């Protein structure tokens, strides 16, 4: 049998493989497990052959079925790319909505199916061209992957050359992060909300307020804090490793030193970006977002409310874990990352929201300027304030010797600007010039520190959050760990470029 006769059977598979390999090759350096790639390909292959089988039942011809299924799979797997592309074209933005695009795609599907049924062609040439084209593209992207260092990134913990003497009876340490929690000035000016109740309560418990600025605009923030190292100027191995710590605190320099001090490291995280992320890994989530399944993630279907309810339970369960850490007989170093108050809005000020089929709750950046969005954000913030204080009181009640650091990863974004692609549409010029209004919104955060023996006192002025943990180790554990420069960088979402912020514009 000539191999060309097998092309109709191979085409659906090679299309699925290409889109997976293409996405992988464009995310080199990210923490992607091979088993996730393999699992995704297995599911994708089964789905592709299911489409081929259904097409066979309709068209009664392998050549026609392969032609139709190949076109269908191409449209299915590329849908998300075209959707985003149309959103980038100014004159297409207003009509780039699923409710407009899906009917067009459906009509296109039906038209193609009708023409294939009526056609007497065997589409032999098509199968050859299609297979060779997608095989070539797959090979090219595979070579890019193979050319990249796929081995494990070099742990930056190998570079740590500090004297660490383990001691007994060290205080438990709680490192708490509340996502997208701005400072009180931004809450007052942008939301009309007075947060002094929360601040005064923390002050009464002995917390010291820090007026910290973040060093990076988004994803690089937490890895730079927990690794006490700037992304700017780091080599690729270091960057890859720090990116891995975004999802695994246990790999970070902070966790490494804590273990050397004799602590048991405990990570509690509520990171869960969307419906898909609660079922699939991060790479699979992105892949599904590039396909036609993005419709599911963007649509007001009741299934989202299952996810939202799960997030509610997850948050409350994690808070319960946090409040009971003191029952652990070992010295503990706790890393707690909370998605709330960051949207979606799943809590009212007094507790979990009740959802119904019409209650789909989705955070859209260019809607944040709306009154309802601001109100929802503040309602959730109030609840986070309430349960955070309750948890802190529980910790201090049972372990007053604990060290507690509480801060945000970054501030708010686009409150009064209505900018969709906030990081990409607001640029920093070559001189590092940025709007002061934008800077204050994004880079100003909530931050408090509690140390029972005042090892970090009012004289220790921490300016940016990259130096929180280094100051803690130096002042409270007598470790020779230097601070980093308090420089700040803007990094657009769509690029890996880091632009140093030097000054502000008044525009």
What does this structure look like?
- The protein is of the alpha/beta class.
- The chain has two domains: 3-147, no CATH class; 172-244 and 258-266 and 311-505, Alkaline Phosphatase, subunit A.
- Helix content is 48%, strand content 9%.
- The strands form four sheets. The protein has a six-stranded mixed β-sheet with strand order 2-9-7-1-4-3, sandwiched between helices. A two-stranded antiparallel sheet has the order 5-6. It has a two-stranded parallel sheet with strand order 8-12.
- The model is unreliable at 363-369 and 416-425 (pLDDT under 50).
List keywords for this structure.
507 residues; Alkaline Phosphatase, subunit A; 48% helix; two-stranded antiparallel sheet; alpha/beta; 6-stranded mixed β-sheet
